[in-house]
Amino acid sequence: xxxxxxxxxxxxxxxxxxxxxxxxxxxxxxxxxxxxxxxxxxxxxxxxxxxxxxxxxxxxxxxxxxxxxxxxxxxxxxxxxxxxxxxxxxxxxxxxxxxxxxxxxxxxxxxxxxxxxxxxxxxxxxxxxxxxxxxxxxxxxxxxxxxxxxxxxxxxxxxxxxxxxxxxxxxxxxxxxxxxxxxxxxxxxxx
Length: 191
Description:
This protein is of the alpha/beta class. The chain has helices at residues 18-30, 71-74, 95-105, 123-131, 145-149, 152-162, 183-190; strands spanning 41-46, 49-55, 114-119, 136-141, 167-170.
């Protein structure tokens, strides 16, 4: 049944579950990322409420990746060894790190919190999430640490870190993540 004035259904629209709701917030946060490689968004939640969000990009006061602020991004087409790994030479702060640091900056507790990311967190972010007391990790897109690091020992350490979380799982359907997911909203706002 349609509402005559707006052509919209008059009944309630489907309501996403909490996991999908938090994933949608992480996807929205990702829309602010300026990385020339993989754009990532994250949200930290505690007791079913949003604590903070983050997206990957250069530190405050530095030029964005698209303006040459990150050597790794600016060299990605010239030096393919920088793709998928070499995170230690990237100046960008990861989405998960930004979410943790934003929570710290504003005094929000992360002990016992969950983190939802658009991409499976890297090795460094897993260590930082454990240190911050995050217990549950959810992500949309899988990421292969063996491919990224090329070192079976590091991949084994990554697997060991995964077991330290109460939950470490993929949520949502990666097929839902299309390039135009928020295009209508962002395009309408930028006009």
